[in-house]
Amino acid sequence: MDVKQNAARPRIPCRKRTESRKGVAIIIVLTFIIGTLAFAMAMFYFRKEVKQQNVLNVNFLQANFLTQAAVQHALVKCRILPQEAYDAGMALQGYCPLQAVIAVDDPDDLPDRGTSSSKAMQIFIGDCTSDPTKGIPWDSRIQNDFGIDPNDWKYEVASMSVIAAFTKPDEKLFVLTSQIIASGTVIEHRGGRGARSELMTKTIEVTRKIN
Amino acid sequence: MKKNGTTLLEVLPAVAMLALAMIPMFGLMSSSNTASRIQKIEGVAANLAKEEMNKWMYVIDPTSFPDDGVEEYVNGAPFIVEGNEVEIKVRVYRHQNTSTNVKYPDFVWHDFRTTCPDSTEGNNLDSKTNQVTRTIEEVTRDATRPRLIDIVMQVRWKTPTTSWSDVNKFFLVSRRGWM
């Protein structure tokens, strides 16, 4: 009876599974492992990238503070030697440093500029550096206390230019507006990124009482 | 006899391979987690160091600085950030005015009444400019207040599960002018 009933039922066509499934488990596992390894590699490189970004940030800070040291050095010199800073700027502008410019109401009435000389300014900023052969080196105890190589930490004032010169007649004051361009360079061995340099510009006023 | 499906002989090596692959993976995950935490605190340490160095460069009165070459915590103790430690120590080194030289230009006298009319320089000053070297003390008549002070900060950091290491350390070096 059962046989009859089965014979009467229409057969549903289905694909006969003929392929062997031997070895499928290993293939699935290998695929999974390869995928996981790819994920791990991506994670590793991302981590490395973040690490490099941190090193870059620290390098920037180190070079930036060296640059600030250069600016500080130049400012101290301008503070303790104001007349010399002014005269060097005057020579750079082509004015005689031995006499004062007379205060004028109209800037057009300022005397003509003569022969410019940069030697005085080069002398003035020449020792604003941590280079021991030219300027004021880092304190020698730093190397002993921290194991820091002073040659890896350098700063200098690259230039000090006069960008404006004018008088304040009411105050009988002659004003030089000067731009200090300072640079700092650090070689940080951690991370092995080599030398990192930064530049900084500081604009100051140098004044002199005039007749 | 049916041969469909996986046999125990197939599954066993597959599971063994999976286990072999996952053991270093778990190790990697764990070390990655630690490294991420260290990197995060490294960023925090850099920011803290920047703030502290700015204070020592521009805010703190140099009369409050520690003695020459004496190490001091900037905050009195290490900073604790999310359970991690950031240690910032500072030392200052004063350049003595009596032994620190400065260079400045000195102009040779020239008759400016005839050669420099109305303050306009008529000479080439390159040959009329000399370099003078004096100590800061000679220039300022002040031997007591050091004009240049070197500042060195040592910054280190660690997580609760790691120990202090030279790898997780950097320095900031600068020079302050005492105006």
The residue-averaged pLDDT of chain B reads: 91
Main beta sheet of chain A: strand number and arrangement?
Answer: 3 strands, antiparallel
Number of helices of chain B: 3
Task: Please give the alpha-carbon distance between the first and last residues of chain B.
Answer: 98 Å
Give the helix tally of chain A: 5
Series of secondary-structure elements of chain A, N-terminal to C-terminal: HHHHHEEE
Largest interface summary: A-B, 80 and 75 residues
Largest sheet of chain B: 5 strands, antiparallel
Residue share in β-strands of chain A? 15-25%
- Overall pLDDT metric of chain A: 87
* Parts with pLDDT < 50 across at least 5 consecutive residues of chain B: none
Give the fraction of residues assigned to helices of chain A: 40-55%
The SSE order of chain B reads HEEEEHEHEE
Strand line-up across the major sheet of chain A:
1-2-3
**Which overall shape of chain A is indicated by the principal axes computed on the Cα atoms?**
elongated
Broad structural category of chain A:
alpha+beta
* Radius of gyration computed on alpha carbons of chain A: 37 Å
Termini Cα gap of chain A = 134 Å
Radius of gyration of chain B: 32 Å
User: β content of chain B, as a range?
Assistant: 25-35%
Topology:
The complex is a heterodimer of chains A (211) and B (179).
Chain A: H1 2-8, H2 24-80, H3 82-93, H4 119-126, H5 140-146, E1 153-168, E2 173-187, E3 195-209
Chain B: H1 8-59, E1 72-73, E2 79-81, E3 84-95, E4 101-107, H2 112-115, E5 129-135, H3 136-140, E6 148-158, E7 169-177
Antiparallel strand pairs in B: 1-3, 2-3, 3-6, 4-5, 6-7
What can you tell me about this protein's structure?
The complex is a heterodimer of chains A (211) and B (179). Chain A is of the alpha+beta class and 211 residues long. Chain A has 5 helices and 3 strands. A 3-stranded antiparallel sheet of chain A has the order 1-2-3. In chain A, α2 packs across α3 (82-93) and α3 (82-93) packs antiparallel against α4 (119-126). The N and C termini of chain A lie far apart (134 Å). The model of chain A has no long low-confidence stretch (mean pLDDT 87). By secondary structure, chain B is α+β, with helices and mostly antiparallel strands. Chain B is built from 3 helices and 7 strands. Chain B has helices spanning 8-59, 112-115, 136-140, and strands at 72-73, 79-81, 84-95, 101-107, 129-135, 148-158, 169-177. In chain B, a hairpin with a 2-residue loop joins β2 and β3 (84-95). Chain B is elongated and about 110 Å long. At the A-B interface, α2, α3, α4 and α5 of A face α1, β3, β4, α3 and β6 of B.
